Amino acid sequence: MKRLRIIGIIAKKEVTDALRNSLFATLAFFLLLLVGVSILVASFAFQSQVAQYHAALSQLSPDQLKSIVLTAPAYYPLQMLRGTIEYLEVIGAIIALVLGYLAIAKEKGSNASRLLLVRPVTRGSFVGGKLLGASIILIALVLGIGVFSVAAVTFVGHVAFSASELMKLGLVLMYTYGYLLFFFCFSAALALLVPNLPRALMLAFSLWLVFVLIIPQIGDTMDPDNQVPGGFFAHLHMTQDGQTAVINQFRRYENFRNALEVSSVEKHYERLTFATLGIKTTYNDKSLGFIMHDKWPDLLVLLVFLMGSIVLAYLSARPSRIMAASP
Amino acid sequence: MSARAPSVFASVVRHELTTLAREKTFLLLLAIFMAMTFFSVYIGWSTRTTTEAIYHASVAYLAAQGVTSIVADPLTGVSPLLVFDNMLVYLLLIGALLAIVIGHRSFIRERAAGVLPLVFVRPISRARYIGAKLLGILLALTGIVFATYAVSAFSAAFIPALRLPAGGYAALLGFYAVSLVYLAFFAAAGLFFSVIMKNESTALFMPILVWVAAVFILPELTTGQNPVALLNPVTLTGAIPDQGLFFTAAHRLLSPFSVGQLYTRSALGMLGGGIGNSIASLFALLAYVGVAIGASAFALRRYAVTRDLYL
Hints:
The structure holds 2 protein chains of 2 kinds. Chain A has helices spanning 2-20, 22-59, 62-67, 82-105, 111-117, 123-157, 163-193, 197-222, 232-235, 240-247, 251-262, 265-277, 288-316, 319-323. Chain A is mainly α. Chain A is elongated. By secondary structure, chain B is mainly α. Chain B has one domain (2-38, 81-310). In chain B, helix 6 (168-196) packs parallel to helix 11 (278-302). Chain B is elongated, with a radius of gyration of 23 Å.
């Protein structure tokens, strides 16, 4: 009971500190702004597709219309969130890194940490309090983005979300919380492990750059289908079976490319969210059971990354490290 | 007294370079950047040759299916220098962050050490100090860019099958010269915010936000593509589709401010993958560098050296 009270006190302080921190407020506002911009841009892009469809339709004669089949662009509210997910992958991860860094940096080597550690605060209570505080902040942030996204998509597209779509969005928000908490724990562990605090922050940024932007980028640019604007196989008018048959001849190359991609936590989060939201068209309008049947390995790896980062944060939180002043 | 001023000027420049060489964070980022530079040519070449092989396999598959009308190889006529186009992405990402760190640390380390009042008791004017700082930063960036050029040329020589056209290495040098301009903009931004911001972390985040705007937000607003589209070299070389009234207006209004796109346009022009007017983009980029350097110099000139002593 006493331990729970200590965890609660530490968590409460984390939340209060975050609310008072202008940098966190600026970054959170910036992210919300970007979510709004990305939904607006997606909506305008969709309107342009519809306009292009009608323009193409008006240019065809009734005879041509019998032989040429034009598919009207279909509106799926969840697909409007592609930009939102990409911003969460990049900016959301930065916010979580900042939170993790600040959670340790503001106390590391200070008199406050010495005062805290003379009290009966165990390593578990310390890490638990920090995690609970971070969870409250991140869940509030993710929920805020979720509510804002639903409102923006409904307002822009004039189409309400169905219950199934809301459930899928709820799941995506849960994955996002897990993804952000991974970066929080990772950054907090680095702030504890690296004696110099600014160096720990830059190290966290460097690793973020490598695992969130560079490795997925290499995988993307090595994709043969990405070598031509509009798609290599679409350019050759190849069917899905044809693509599979050809790509199977280049298994080693594809395996290497895939191995690069799966080494990044961001790619697992992206695969999981893109499938759930139907941004990857194979999974659009499919049931959650169908999606999870294919995507459970990505969920599992995301959980392994998260658990690994929590364990790392716990092991790093030795009193000697918390009390060591940054040189 | 005035006869000693040039040596103090040289000392500031030398100090800039030697302290940078001791910065572990900088060295880590530099190591990542150089490693990516070395591998980027192989990645570009391997992707190009595999895609060529996939095209031939696709032609054989389609022929076996009885298809008679098969489109030509889409990679025919694509500049062989575009095997270096991954470097463009690494410069957009790691290069810009490296430049921000150089500019940021240049002033922050002296602020944090509290040595500025001591520096100005030496016979050096504020203008000469600013000039020496900026020269030191530019020399560091130039050294990095030329080392990167050397690594690219060296790694290209490791792939015997990769034959660059006549003048290929000169074009590559042009590409890196344009990249130096882009990096100078972010180094100046890093320096500017390190002078005007009180908090060290905020001073680091502000240029990073500028970078996020330049690389993710403005390209999305002006083209209607996804936020990370600028990180795919193929998307960069492809024509931007007509996206309707909003994007036409946004393109006209915001494109002149999109530093990331100005850089990609001018740098791709050097590699033979032109998308729009690369010379005009380069001049616009140079103008932004001038503004950023001017703003940094102005902020440094107005900086009260005793400000941090009482924090």
